[in-house]
């Protein structure tokens, strides 16, 4: 059994505006360029009729990792991420995300739900990190969840800024 990931992002914009950003290839390219980290690349993007399906690669430099992680997995962690969003239906949209790290027996996956929240929008992320390593898996999962939540906070800040600027 893995470790839960729960995260909420609130935006002072309507669902249609937030959704339009999250299905815009230019948004993703800008986001990766600004906050994607060293060597971040957008590998594949497919858009159409209010949807997006994309694959990206990011990395965490070894010097930013705890020693017990680098003892088990020397070098940078190369992360392959997948994210998709469906069209807005009524006043909601749903998405999926997943990630895995080269050389690490585990995964991260979950769902995203976008819905109105007062005058704005809330994006709820519900997921799980699972690392299948005896004795260390739970500890590594905890670090992964902590890093993912920090990343989601940085991505929320970028998205709020993106939404407030003309494009």
From TrEMBL:
It holds the Pfam family DUF2505. InterPro entries: DUF2505. This is DUF2505 domain-containing protein.
